[in-house]
Amino acid sequence: MAPKAKKPAATPAKSAAPKTSKAAAKAAAPPKVDAGVVKAKEKALRAKKSVVRGTHDKKNRKIRTSVHFRRPKTLKLPRAPKYPRKSVNKTNKLDQYCLIKYPLTTESAMKKIEDNNTLVFIVDKRANKPMIKMAVKKLYDIEVAKVNTLIRPDCEKKAYVRIAPDYDALDIANKVCCD
Amino acid sequence: MAKVKAKELRGKKKEELLKQLDDLKKELQILRVAKVTGGAAAKLGKIYTVRKSVARVLTVIKQTQKDNLRKFYRKKTHKPKDLRQKKTRALRRALTPYELSLKSKKELRKQRLYPLRKYAVKE
d(Cα A5, Cα B121) in Å, to the nearest integer? Predict the structure, then answer.
């Protein structure tokens, strides 16, 4: 700010001189043009001074309160892709029809239907309990209490689907198997 | 259900196709249950045709989808990568025909000054 502090002091002195000389030279010229010309001259002189002296500005240094230099926060733009990388997204190959393969009709499965109100399904190995629950709900329109799963020795997944007490497993089984 | 033909499927809309797919899959489910509970031979034989019909419907869906996307991106500069030319990795990175045709000033000068002359031998 030192050069600038000096400039206002200098320029009035300098502006006074050109003004009077200009006024003397062009008495007929209107005052507006005079002021414009004077201003331009002032600006030129100021620029010349700063170039000659050099701008040594000391007053804009930041105060460092910590020894560490932390990366400043910069602008992070969200993604705006010009084209999708894949034209078509993958369809879900494991839909409800693929999930549940078929119900089991062994004697022990029959026992489960009658006694424990559960249905026994052979299910895709990649299925998990919540997926099985949803699939059974969708396919047979029933409420499921819980699902237990195990993987058989022949690498098939078996799901014991316990049905809510207000539905009857026997009815559903008859509807499904004897359709 | 009669045999599903691809020709008939291609005219249909996406919702219709998806509905047909759903129906076919339901039927497949029923057939699979019949297989386990000891169904008639007719039912068991049908499993194969239904499976292939499902495949046919899915193929038609995918093909029309891809086709429409290609039409959509035809005039655009930035296409998805699977709609661009596949060729080979090296070919994709090779110089374009325009880039190959560029000649240096030196070469152009030579060509202009010393063109290929054709001579005729007098009989």
Answer: 93
- Rounded to two decimals, the pTM is 0.69
Instruction: Fill in the amino acid letter for B67.
Output: D
Q: What is the ipTM of this complex?
A: 0.76
Report how far residue A97's alpha carbon sits from residue B21's, in angstroms, rounded to the nearest whole number. 11
A82, A87, A102 ranked by CB distance to B33: nearest: A102
- pLDDT, one tens digit per residue, over A58-116 is 677 888 999 999 999 999 999 999 999 999 988 888 888 989 999 999 999 999 999 99
Give the Cα-Cα-Cα angle B101, B107, B113 (nearest 5 degrees): 120
Mode of pairing for the β-strands spanning A144-151 and A100-103: unpaired
Tens-place pLDDT, residues B35-57: 998 888 888 889 999 999 999 99
Which of B25, B30, B35, B36 to probe by mutation at the A interface, max A CB count within 10 Å?
Answer: B36
By C-alpha distance, which of A161, A158, A175, A149 is closest to A117? A161
- CA A19, CA A37: separation in Å to the nearest integer? 9
Quickly count: other Cβ atoms within 10 Å of residue A118's Cβ.
22
DSSP bridge partners of B25: none
Any chain A CB within 8 A of the CB of B71?
no
Unique residue bearing structure tokens 């329109």: A141
Q: What's the rounded Cα separation, in Å, for the pair A94 and A131?
A: 10
Structure-token pair, residue B52: 């292939």
The answer to whether the Cβ–Cβ distance between B80 and A86 falls below 8 Å is yes
Rounded Cα distance between B19 and B43, Å, is 22
pLDDT at A158: 97
Contact A179/B30 with Cβ under 8 angstroms? yes
pLDDT digits (tens, 9 = 90+) for B73-117: 999 999 999 999 999 999 999 999 999 999 999 999 999 999 999
